[in-house]
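hiii so um. not sure if this is the right channel but i have a protein structure encoded as tokens and i wanna go backwards to a sequence. like what aa goes where. can anyone help
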């Protein structure tokens, strides 16, 4: 069992190197005897009327930092019959108890892509390969003799969400700001590392006007983001620029995050102390 970072996400690489991901992952297994894996009982048009016998079901805690575990042994001896057909899954069925100290990987803002290589993939029941190869699914069929290998990889990829920003104008001179495009930028970071936003290198620059909300796609999930407004000067009004607005890390990429950016505008005043008399 191992974690990978195929997209080269640097903050994720730091998390993996720092051991922030689970040290063990529970693998659920459910095994039955099936002499011919091409004729499962779920397909009555193919099976011969016999139903497979129960072999075993449960969990095994698999280390993610090296090492391996064995299943199908009792008192150190092989106990599963040749012809055992198994499901191995990193997603436990709902309502089942997982082993103590083991939990599925869950990094907020990331999805997990699961893949398996083995020399006992179910589709290879007719001819067992010499070396482990990618399997088409999570089912395996036990051949006779040799060492049976099941290698699980969980590849983590960062998700991206959407942020919708709206400009709000207040103050006695708010009308002076209508039609003006306020310069803004959106920045995100994780583990102290700035991340690309909406396809930009690091900081995404945009403008925001009253009455014209801005929807930004491609905002990295699981990151700390902030909206920064540049200083704005208007000829007939003073503008109070808001402090940077923090956005909580996105964990649900199916929900748009709404942010209101408020500016208070006031009329400029002048003090006339001396008037010339003619």
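sure thing!! here u go:
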């Amino acid at each position: 069992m191992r974690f990978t970072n195929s997209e080269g996400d640097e903050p994720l690489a730091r998390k993996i190197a720092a051991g922030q991901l689970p040290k063990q992952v529970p693998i659920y297994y459910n095994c039955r005897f099936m002499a011919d894996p091409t004729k499962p009982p779920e397909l009555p048009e193919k099976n011969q009327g016999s139903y497979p016998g129960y072999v075993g079901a449960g969990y095994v805690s698999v280390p993610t930092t090296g090492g391996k575990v064995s299943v199908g042994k009792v008192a150190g001896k092989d106990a599963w019959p040749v012809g055992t057909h198994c499901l191995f899954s990193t997603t436990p069925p709902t309502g089942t108890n997982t082993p103590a100290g083991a939990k599925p990987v869950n990094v907020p803002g990331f999805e997990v892509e699961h893949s398996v290589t083995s020399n006992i993939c179910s589709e290879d029941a007719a001819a067992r390969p010499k070396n482990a190869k990618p399997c088409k699914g999570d089912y395996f069929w036990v051949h006779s003799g040799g060492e049976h290998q099941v290698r699980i990889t969980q590849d983590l990829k960062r998700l991206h969400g959407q942020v919708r920003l709206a400009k709000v104008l207040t103050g006695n001179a708010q009308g002076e700001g209508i039609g003006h495009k306020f310069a803004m930028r959106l920045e995100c970071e994780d583990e102290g590392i700035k991340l690309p936003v909406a396809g930009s290198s690091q900081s995404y620059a945009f403008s925001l006007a009253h009455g014209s909300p801005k929807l930004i796609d491609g905002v990295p999930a699981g990151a700390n983001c902030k909206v920064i407004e540049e200083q704005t000067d208007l000829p007939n009004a003073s503008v109070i620029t808001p402090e940077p607005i923090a956005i909580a890390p996105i964990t649900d990429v199916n929900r748009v995050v709404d942010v209101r950016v408020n500016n208070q505008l006031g009329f400029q005043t002048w003090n006339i102390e001396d008037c010339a008399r003619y």
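oh and Residues 159-267 form a domain with the Immunoglobulin-like fold (CATH 2.60.40.1140).
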